[in-house]
């Protein structure tokens, strides 16, 4: 296994990704997103307390353009049930009160552990994907019919 520096590393470099052009919509593997969404939510909320729709907008701003409220709100509710985030209602002049979320101490611990695991997994995947591939074999010729 490659040497991986263990410690907290930002999972999401918001400044770097928000500067990227957004003219192209990328489709993301829903299974990969499902596995990392909690980690992304915890990181975004650790950066700053946010309400649900704002989190959706922030995810979309970094390139996860296919992430919608129907994915984020259940994940936020689950993180709240698990005690990893806490919420407070703040009145809004433009509509109903907004529920602002932020990580709890358990949420910060989960973020640190999750970031370490993510770094290990991505290092392994990067190592495998960086290996050179042999030349693509030519298509096998059709077997000749037995006589």
The CATH topology: Arc Repressor Mutant, subunit A
User: Measured on Cα atoms, how large is the radius of gyration?
Assistant: 21 Å
Oligomeric organization of the protein chains: single chain
Poorly predicted residue ranges: 1-26
**CATH homology-level superfamily:** Winged helix-like DNA-binding domain superfamily/Winged helix DNA-binding domain
Following the backbone from N to C, one meets helices and strands in this order, namely HHEHHEEH
What is the count of helical runs? 5
What's the level 1 CATH class? Mainly Alpha
Largest sheet composition: 3 strands, antiparallel
Structural summary, described in words:
- This protein has a three-stranded antiparallel β-sheet with strand order 1-3-2.
- Helix 2 (30-47) crosses helix 5 and helix 3 packs across helix 4 (69-81).
- The protein has helices at 14-18, 30-47, 52-61, 69-81, 105-129; strands at residues 50-51, 85-92, 95-103.
- It is of the alpha+beta class and 147 residues long.
- It is elongated.
- It has one domain (14-129): Winged helix-like DNA-binding domain superfamily/Winged helix DNA-binding domain (Arc Repressor Mutant, subunit A, Orthogonal Bundle), CATH 1.10.10.10.
